[in-house]
Amino acid sequence: MNNKKVAIITGSGRGIGAATAKLFATNGYAVCVNYKLNASAANAVAEEIKASGGTCIAVQADVSQEDDVTRLFDTVDHQLGVVSVLVNNAGILRQQMRLEDMSADRINAILMNNVTGYFLCCREAVKRMSTRHGGVGGVIVNVSSGAARTGSPNEYIDYAASKGAIDTLTKGLSVEVAAENIRVNCVRPGLIHTDMHADGGEPERVERLKSKIPMQRGGQPIEVAEAIYWLASDQSSFATGNFLDLTGGL
Ligand code: NAP
Fold first, then answer.
1. Whose CA is nearest to atom 36 of ligand 1?
2. In the record, which residues are listed under signal peptide (predicted)?
3. Using CA atoms, how far apart are residues 184 and 173, in angstroms rounded to an integer?
């Protein structure tokens, strides 16, 4: 077992999660790179971390599935040690469309992944971190979205609503566990250059919309990762239930 602090970054085979996993590893954390489908991408992130002298495991687990989440945390317990940072990042969106065209299957898939998945990972983290259960504390950072405030009309209101739920989760849980040495905070990225936009059917979405961003550009995954890292660090030791918007002023 290693003696480093342990961070679990859900959905870290690519995009914001991959940048976050690498940043935590660079700063001395033992990192669990979690993914759902793309093993080669996750393994590449893990190999890059290990090649730089870091400690990392890649674990397949669909965070929307309860058994997968318990297996993910049990695996980390056994292979890295007790988690001290959870970054809830694994989010999905689907093809852009208006609400009247959405099926129940689609809406439920978004909510299962983006809401139930975050809740289940918080549950397993709190069980291990809370002083109430004999733990020593920890930090949870939830990755929400600026969409929670805009509602994403004509694109994906279901996705935006799932992120609104994450803001509420952050608020409630932060107070529930504040006296148990657990801080819970949230980042709300705006338009970030990742492959997620292709899943919505528009790979160049950030380029199309960048003129609406006061800073006139989209963000890079590392710019979100740095904020997540700060919220997980002792530098933000009095911050809990707080939201950091990373939107270039949008
Ligand atoms: P991304 O490039 O699409 O990457 C998503 C990652 O999550 C992938 O590695 C994927 O793994 C993993 N994942 C998806 N569902 C999963 C599940 N059920 N279990 C485990 N892993 C799962 O996404 P991103 O743009 O980096 O976004 C990361 C987070 O930031 C999301 O929560 C997103 O909502 C939020 N965000 C993004 C933006 C943006 O502009 N990009 C803006 C605001 C908020 P596999 O490939 O293996 O399936």
1. 145
2. none
3. 7
Ligand 1 pocket, CB under 6 A? 10-11, 13-17, 34-38, 62-64, 89-92, 113, 117, 143, 145, 189, 191-192, 194-196
Residue nearest ligand 1's atom 7 by CA: 11
Using the mean position of ligand 1's atoms as its centre, give its distance from the Cα of residue 206 in Å. Answer: 16
pLDDT given at position 206: 97
Every domain of the chain and the residues it spans: 6-246
* The Cα angle at residue 151 between residues 146 and 153, in degrees rounded to 5: 125
For residue 156, indicate whether it is catalytic: no
Centroid of ligand 1 to alpha carbon of 104 (angstroms): 21
The two beta strands, 182-189 and 243-246, are parallel
Measured by CA distance, the residue closest to atom 17 of ligand 1 is 62
Cα distance between residue 239 and residue 206, in whole Å:
30
Look at the alpha carbons of 210, 212, 216, 221 in this order and tell me if their dihedral is positive or negative.
Answer: negative
CA gap 31, 17 in Å, rounded:
11
Fold classification of 6-246 is: Rossmann fold (3.40.50)
